[in-house]
Amino acid sequence: MKLALDALGYKKGELSILITDDERIRELNRKFLRHDRPTNVLAFPMQGEDIKGPYPVLGDIVISVDTAIKEAEKYGIGLETYVVRLLIHGLLHLLGYDHERGKAEEEEMLKEEERILKIIYKEG
């Protein structure tokens, strides 16, 4: 994630990542977003929160490994590669990107995901 943070202009930042199953992510999705279904990734930003520490606290990213396995297989890519994409997607949400606001923002977010993936796999 360091390369992704660097690519986004952050030298340091803190976030939590939870890898879980469909049942747990569905609970979180229902409780916090009122969507009663599992999903691949959720992001809970903490910007503006009064949290003390040496680094800015960006928030929490939750990934369902159950959904990630199904989707990686569907798209014909490796699970590790797909989980990295989901982490980047979640990170962008933590930083204010939102593909659900319209086509222009969706395209901007996808472009940024691709840019970061290229950096990670070129330098990683």
Please tell me about this protein's structure.
There is one protein chain. It is built from five helices and three strands. The protein has helices at 2-7, 22-33, 65-75, 79-94, 103-123; strands at 14-20, 41-45, 57-64. Strands 1-3-2 form a three-stranded mixed beta sheet, sandwiched between helices. Helix 3 (65-75) packs across helix 4. The protein is globular, with a radius of gyration of 14 Å.
Beta-sheet strand percentage? 15-25%
CATH superfamily: Metalloproteases ("zincins"), catalytic domain
Helix content: 40-55%
Assign the structural class, choosing from mainly alpha, mainly beta, alpha/beta, alpha+beta, or little secondary structure: alpha+beta
Report mean pLDDT, rounded to a whole number: 88
- Helical stretch tally: 5
Task: Give Rg in angstroms.
Answer: 14 Å
Low-pLDDT segments: none
Number of strands: 3
Q: Indicate the CATH architecture.
A: 3-Layer(aba) Sandwich
Whole-number count of domains: 1
Largest sheet: 3 strands, mixed
Sequence of secondary-structure elements: HEHEEHHH
Task: Give structural attributes.
124 residues, alpha+beta, Collagenase (Catalytic Domain), three-stranded mixed beta sheet, 16% strand
